[in-house]
Write a structure and sequence with these properties.
Helix content: 10-25%
Oligomer: single chain
Largest sheet: 6 strands, mixed
Strand content: 25-35%
Number of strands: 24
Organism: Acidisoma silvae
Protein name: DUF4043 domain-containing protein
CATH topology of the largest domain: phage-related protein like fold
Structural class: alpha+beta
Length: 440
């Protein structure tokens, strides 16, 4: 059997000399974002999109009922109701496969079948973690951007780097397109304007991860001073993004703006102001190794552990756990990008999450008997179907090893939590996570 009959990608594993008969595993990414998601099972037969409704609270009553008004059938009371808000989960189909010739594979140095299974499993886990990350950051980037091109003269339309968070507004708990009938208050530079429309560019030039560049149109002219390139643009319902030195957008970050313990304490305070529930007693902080290293170099952090012995678990592990009200979870899937304006610098984005920051919807029909017969080789692992198809070619030699997942992720909003029901709450539409941007 000639080696030339093998696919080019597999030929290096077949040699005439002696090789160790076991594959060495490649480096693999450190995952974690999917773990923060609350899981919902999406029932069979209800379509591919599911809308869920969350009930709000009624404002507190601190004024006593007047005895003079306590008359008639209504006792002087005016009926009031609680608000609602909705979020939508959309199911999508994700899958990948690999073929294996069981006869020719016997020439190889080790079991390609087992290696295919391992590689498929790692690919599936990493894919779902990135889907979770993208859904989380998509919501928490929202409402924060900057002017991308200076206005030549005062006008109602400005170009911005990212229109996420400016396209819709919640009306009675339901997302509606921003328009003159559903306007959104937006601060540009140092002044406030009324947004009445948002449109994406035909060619996306955004420098923000998965951002959507476009134009914002307002009900009045934006001044040239406010519409100058690089100025911050923030919606009244913007998600919380904290930056060292109080920087108001990504491009303003400087080389000295590294991660500090104070940034994380501010994030915890923001979550607690919004009454966001903790995850087993603390909030999850997802950060990459460089962000973690900067934390150890922070003077406040070092002062806190002055005199700590070498047996201290914080320094033994090189990472903090369940500390400062946070559970630190290292990940290599964090968004890292080149600084938009400064060479050789990168922007890093730890994100601190509370319970309910993300919802995962898993389709209940994955691996159902009427789809996958009982004698088929289908195994459900953490919600993902791992499938081995028997050989159906003429020589009955080629099997297919595949995986698939049907589901989706979304970040639910908390617009019904307002200062009327929780006095310390912010106006952010999405309150259950706080992002920190810094240079590293």
């Amino acid at each position: 059997m000639g080696i030339q009959n093998f696919p080019a990608a597999l030929q290096p594993i077949i040699q005439q000399g002696f090789l160790e008969r076991e594959f060495q595993q490649a480096l693999r990414s450190r995952l974690g974002y999917r773990a923060v998601a609350d899981r919902d099972e999406i029932a069979v037969g209800i379509g591919e999109t599911l809308t869920k409704t969350r009930a709000g609270l009624k404002p507190s009553v601190t004024t006593p009922l007047s005895p003079a008004l306590n008359t008639n059938l209504d006792n002087g009371l005016t009926p009031s109701s609680w608000g609602v808000e909705q979020y939508t989960l959309t199911l999508n189909f994700y899958a990948a496969t690999a073929d294996l010739n069981m006869v020719t594979s016997r020439v190889g140095i080790a079991s390609q079948f087992l290696q295919n299974a391992y590689t498929n499993g790692e690919q599936a886990a990493r894919s779902l973690d990135e889907l979770a990350r993208n859904a989380l950051f998509n919501a928490y980037f929202g409402g924060n951007t900057r002017v991308s091109a200076t206005l030549a003269s005062a006008g109602p339309t400005i170009a911005v780097d990212d229109i996420r968070g400016f396209q819709t507004i919640f009306v009675n708990g339901v997302q509606a397109a921003v328009s003159s009938g559903n306007p959104l208050a937006v601060t540009i530079g140092s002044d406030s304007y009324t947004l009445i429309g948002a449109a994406a560019d035909s060619v996306n030039t955004s420098t923000t991860p998965y951002g959507i560049s476009g134009e914002l149109t307002f009900g009045s002219n934006v001044t040239v001073a406010d519409g100058t390139g690089g100025n911050s643009v923030q919606a009244a319902t913007a998600s919380a993004i904290l930056r060292p030195g109080g920087r108001t957008n990504t491009t303003l970050l400087q080389a000295t703006d590294t991660l500090a313990m104070g940034n994380l304490l501010d994030a915890v305070a923001t979550l607690r102001k919004n009454a966001v529930p903790e995850i087993d007693g603390v909030y999850n902080c997802y950060l990459d190794p460089v962000s973690a290293r900067q934390l150890f170099a922070d003077p406040d952090f070092k002062t806190l552990f002055t005199g700590a012995t070498s047996s201290n678990a914080v320094f033994q592990d090189g990472m903090v756990n369940d500390f400062l009200g946070l559970r630190f979870i290292p990940t290599t899937e964090a968004f890292v990008q080149q600084h938009p304006t400064l060479a050789n610098l990168h922007i890093r984005r730890p994100i601190i999450c509370g319970q309910g920051a993300l919802i995962e919807g898993d389709f209940a029909g994955i691996g159902a008997d009427d789809v996958a017969p009982k004698d088929s080789i289908v195994t459900i692992v953490d919600g993902v179907a791992m499938v081995t198809r028997e050989p159906i070619d003429r020589l009955q030699q080629i099997i297919a090893q595949s995986w698939y997942w049907i589901g989706g992720f979304c970040a639910p909003s908390d617009t019904t939590t307002t200062p009327l029901t929780v006095p310390t709450a912010t106006n952010a539409a999405f309150k259950r996570a706080v992002m920190v941007e810094h240079v590293g």
